[in-house]
């Protein structure tokens, strides 16, 4: 699992249109980031973002990448002091990267940074499971895996398209996962059609990032599965983390879509 300190800020996609002073400030910000001077780096990234926002439209939109860098720097600084604030900053950084990706959805640096931030958020904090209309709907596939819920088998037809040139990847020179002029080569699925989807009763498939989710939990389930103090905290906040639920699943030997206690 990557540490947040190992997640590095990115250079803007429109770096070629920065002024010489802005380019120098960017280099200084990256240098401060490398040396662990998070506050100084964040300040320079924020200042650069403000200048970019006052520039031509494409550069102005790309300023979101510098806002993401600033949030990343402050999150690295605050993680051991204020975890809630650090998490909020990382969520905001991922959102800024979404905005920065709008002109070019396959810009490699932004895609990779967004992926690293999301992975860290899930592994460090766990995804949020919130109470809605009296129940707790669970979408996290890690919870399904912990419950050993059988997965699904699917048969499908689709076309593939290269994210770089738009051709069939079988007949183009771009290698998936490689970067070409800043853009990430990917095999894009087009014209997807499902022939059938079947539940696998007797075995769990190797592909564990898709599958069935368990039934929603009720408040009574929270009281039953969790220690009294933790249950009271969860019900008061109206929020549960997947990591806490997975821990209880293992401790209480719960399994299946209905959270049935298994023999120990």
What would you note in describing this structure?
The longest helix is centred in the N-terminal third of the chain and has 22 residues. The protein contains 9 helices and 10 strands. The radius of gyration is 22 Å and the shape is flat. It is of the alpha+beta class. It is 46% helix and 17% strand. The chain folds into 3 domains: 121 residues, no CATH class; 76 residues, no CATH class; 48 residues, no CATH class. β4 and β5 form a beta hairpin.
Major sheet: size, sense and barrel closure?
4 strands, antiparallel
Average pLDDT level: 90
How far is it from the N-terminal to the C-terminal residue, by CA?
Answer: 30 Å
Which residues form runs of ≥5 with pLDDT under 50? none
Order of helices and strands: HHHHHEEHEEEEEHHEHEE
Q: DSSP strand (E) fraction?
A: 15-25%
Q: Helix count, per DSSP?
A: 9
Principal-axis shape: flat
Strand order of the largest sheet: 7-2-1-8
Overall number of strands: 10
Give a quick rundown of the structure:
By secondary structure, this protein is an alpha+beta fold.
């Amino acid at each position: 699992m990557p540490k947040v300190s190992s997640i590095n800020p990115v250079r803007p996609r429109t770096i070629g249109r920065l002024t010489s002073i802005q380019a120098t400030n960017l280099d200084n910000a990256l240098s401060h980031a490398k040396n662990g001077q998070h506050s100084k780096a964040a300040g320079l990234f924020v200042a650069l973002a403000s200048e970019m926002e006052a520039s031509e439209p494409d550069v102005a939109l790309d300023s979101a990448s510098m806002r993401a860098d600033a949030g990343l720097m402050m999150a690295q600084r605050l993680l051991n002091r204020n975890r809630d604030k650090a998490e909020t900053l990382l969520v905001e950084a991922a959102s800024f990267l979404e905005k920065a990706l709008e002109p070019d959805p396959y810009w490699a640096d932004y895609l990779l940074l967004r992926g690293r931030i999301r992975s860290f958020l899930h592994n460090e904090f766990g995804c949020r499971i919130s109470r809605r209309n009296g129940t707790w709907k669970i979408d996290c596939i890690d919870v399904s895996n912990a419950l050993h819920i059988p997965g699904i088998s699917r048969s499908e037809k689709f076309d593939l398209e290269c994210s770089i040139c738009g051709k069939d990847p079988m007949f183009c020179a771009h290698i998936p996962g490689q970067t070409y002029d800043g853009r990430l080569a990917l095999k894009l699925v087009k014209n997807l059609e499902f022939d059938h989807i079947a539940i696998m009763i007797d075995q769990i498939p190797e592909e564990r990032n898709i599958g069935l989710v368990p039934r929603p939990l009720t408040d009574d389930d929270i009281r039953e599965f969790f220690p009294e103090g933790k249950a009271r905290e969860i019900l008061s906040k109206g929020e549960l983390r997947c990591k806490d639920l997975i821990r209880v699943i293992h401790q209480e030997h719960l399994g299946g879509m209905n959270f049935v206690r298994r023999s120990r």
